[in-house]
Amino acid sequence: MSASPISNVSDTARWVAVYRAQESARPDALFHDPFAQLLAGERGQAIAAFMPRQARNGWPMIARTKLMDDLILAMIEQGCDCVVNLAAGFDTRPYRLEVPASLRWIEADLPALTEEKEQLLKDAQPRCQLRRIKVDLADSSARVAMLKEAVGPSTNVLVITEGLLVYLDEAQVRSLAMDLGAQAGIRWWMLDLASPALLKMMEKSMGPQLVNAPMKFGPANGIAFFEDLGWRTTHIQSVLRAAARFRRLPWTLKLFGFLPEPNPRNPGRAPWSAVVQLGRA
Questions:
Q1: Paired strand residues for 237
Q2: Which pick of 7, 42, 86, 106 has the fewest CB atoms within 10 Å?
Q3: How far is the C-alpha of 208 from the C-alpha of 50, rounded, in Å?
Q4: pLDDT in tens, 20-67
Q5: Angle formed by the axes of helices 12-24 and 59-77, nearest 10°
Q6: Which distant-in-sequence residues (6+ apart) come within 8 Å of 130 by Cβ?
Q7: What is the pTM of this model?
Q8: Backbone φ, ψ for residue 131 (5° rounding)
Q9: Which of 154, 165, 163 minimizes the C-alpha distance to 131?
Q10: Are 261 and 179 in contact (CB under 8 A)?
Q11: Per residue in 55-80, pLDDT tens?
Q12: Is 132 in contact with 118 (CB distance < 8 Å)?
């Protein structure tokens, strides 16, 4: 096997954009991202082609995107006045979602990826007040300073960490959870969560492809990991169940859509993943 075209975690942004482009091209598309193909580029296509055959339709990313789209819009209806997207990658929601022009939307990511995205989208017009902050989120002091700046005067902030936590270790996630909880203006936190069994399955099937971006975080106690840190679970949606409902689940997995849902605080041996919304306890 040749070397993986994924050189670091940032490259996964290109990979995910491929699946958003594929979904957008469908006549029954769950969402439309007119910028996904441009952002994915040849590198993204090469990454997607390098993945195992069973992973190439990207149904988990498609279901996750749709679930988070809907939750973001619901939070805005409930009074969210600012969205802070950590490790925003090539996300294009400020351009494609029907959000209020008054909404503050902050994207935070590494300088190189942010600059590339700004160049690719230089002619596009966001629907809200978009600002990008260049920061290394692994630097705890820089992260705290960025959060204070991003939250600013807002009192109903939604933080998004889509596709981020799985690449961190438990200590890093714990530190991030505490940093977010320390900002009084942050009201909600939206994330995607995987079980230990799913991580093992991914390692077995995609280990060589993700050797430079290994998946690490899948707590045995599921959402209780965050509840023990002072957060309250307000919403959980299984990615597999959502994919079945959206008719994106491969036929080889359809029977799994009828199995009982595992305990989100003790998923055990179930290869489970979910989109989770947390609020202040």
A1: 275
A2: 42
A3: 10
A4: 999 999 999 999 999 999 999 999 999 998 887 766 789 999 999 999
A5: 80
A6: 94, 105, 107
A7: 0.95
A8: -135, 140
A9: 154
A10: no
A11: 678 999 999 999 999 999 999 999 99
A12: yes
Q: The dihedral of CA 148, 153, 155, 160: what is its sign?
A: negative
Tokens of 18: 């491929």
Pairing of β 231-238 and β 82-86: unpaired
Name the architecture of domain 59-280: 3-Layer(aba) Sandwich (3.40)
First to last CA, the chain: 48
Residue range 200-226: mean pLDDT, rounded: 91
- The domains of the chain are located at 59-280
C-alpha separations of 169 from 126, 164, 251 in Å: 33, 11, 33
CA–CA distance, 157 with 148 (Å, rounded to integer) = 12
| Residue owning tokens 């597999």 | 240
Q: Is 223 in contact with 236 (CB distance < 8 Å)?
A: yes
Query: For tokens 């769950």, what's the residue?
Result: 30
